[in-house]
Design a protein that fits this description.
Layout: E1 22-31, E2 42-51, E3 54-59, E4 63-64, H1 65-77, E5 85-87, E6 93-99, E7 104-111, H2 113-119, E8 127-133, H3 134-147
Antiparallel strand pairs: 1-2, 2-3, 2-4, 5-6, 6-7, 7-8
Helix pairs in contact: 1-3
């Protein structure tokens, strides 16, 4: 005996691209020529990444305006390189960007564990791997550049 099953006609589905991570950016302002007598503007960037796996935080140490501008440039251009690009302007901290496809970039945030402990940033991850879309990177670059300015 042979049993034949027929399936109803199945429509071809279209894959909907979802953002695996959302990112929230903030910066703690330390000094600038408006609020202190220091000529150097210092801001400490903080990234909060959320996904269905949970929430992770990555802190960078206080950075000068030119360093913040370089970080902004890194985020805005990292999707245009065919190989991995590394931001390592701050000793003990490194961000590596690798293009996954035309729309997504894998970012690996790495910090020296002892340096994180020394700075008192116990809630900060020292190794974090996230995937962001190019539009998210562009927004992030604008936020970093805006926070590099003097007091708001």
């Amino acid at each position: 005996m042979v049993l034949l099953k027929t399936l109803p006609k199945v429509a071809v589905s279209v894959e909907v691209r979802s953002m695996p991570y959302s990112v929230e950016y903030s910066a703690q302002h330390f000094s600038c020529n408006i609020c202190t007598s220091e000529e150097l503007s210092l801001n400490a960037p903080k990234f909060v990444f959320s996904s269905n796996k949970g929430v992770s935080t990555f802190n960078l140490p206080p950075m000068s305006g030119p360093e913040m501008s370089a970080l902004s440039l890194f985020f805005s251009t990292s999707a245009s390189f065919p190989c991995a690009v590394v931001f390592d302007h701050i000793p003990g901290f490194q961000i590596t960007a690798t293009v996954i496809d035309g729309c997504d970039v894998a970012l690996l945030f790495h910090a020296d564990h002892e340096l994180i402990h020394f700075m008192g940033l116990e809630g900060s991850a020292n190794l974090l791997n996230v995937t962001l879309g190019t539009s998210q990177l562009d927004v992030l670059a604008e936020q970093v550049l805006a926070s590099a300015a003097n007091c708001h």
